[in-house]
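Give me the 3D structure for SDR family NAD(P)-dependent oxidoreductase.
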Amino acid sequence: MDERIAVVTGATSGIGKEIARGLLRRGFRVGIVGRSAMRGEDAVEELGGRADMFLADLSVRPDVRRVAAEIEERYGRLDVLVNNAGVHMMRAKVSADGYDRMIATNHLGPFLLTNLLLGMLGRSAPSRVVVVASEAHRHAGRFDPERLAEPGSYRAAGSFRVYARSKLLNILFVQELAERLEGTGVTANAVSPGVVATGLVRELRWAERASGLISHTPAVRTPEQGARMALELATDEKYEGCSGGFYSSAPGAGLLPRAGALKDRELRKAVWRASAHLVGLPGTIALGT
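Predicted structure for SDR family NAD(P)-dependent oxidoreductase (289 residues):
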């Protein structure tokens, strides 16, 4: 039987590293994607012999294309892809491609990487895509899909709205991807890990202080706890064939109504078209055989 292969982005620390660790314990060879060579080397050493490091900044389109080619060359097939990498910036920054860097990292990078790796996922079907989103998606507000990555200016308060938009885009992407992949054996789901004490909000001084105050309460989870739902979606038999879902680990989330944007089929299709245009992809997708 072929060795099972998984790729986890943003896996040099926090939730991503714990997802990678969990997959390794389940017998996978795991490729971890990160921006820092030093942190990547440290993570590979800590995680052990079946972990491989791939260096890439997911906000940079050429980096995403290069790392996808490297993953293809190294493995040839892929059973699980976990899009976990994400940033929350206090001030607006522009990506190398001219887009809002938070949107580029959190949405456009995963969108492009997933599409570039669909051939590998198709060859390994049944296979799974998991996208780490957030309950923050509920606070995205209205936005124009044609301007979803347009750079602008914002500070701490406004940055949360942009972050929330990026997480909403994650879920809309998963919904549309699942519909397009129906019947192929490749499934896609999104997950909210709840509030986790990680370095994601280091630039947000108020959030860092708040996290420090409540990090030992049930409201804030450890990275290991935050990784559990993503690992279940990636590996558990009970999710075999399930696709297009949003699963939340946030306490009480099951009592909340579904966000209106997640019921808007035309919005998610418009987001797909705009995203494909921004990253230079055709509007249709094809799986490998």
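The chain has one domain: 5-279. Let me know if you want a second pass.
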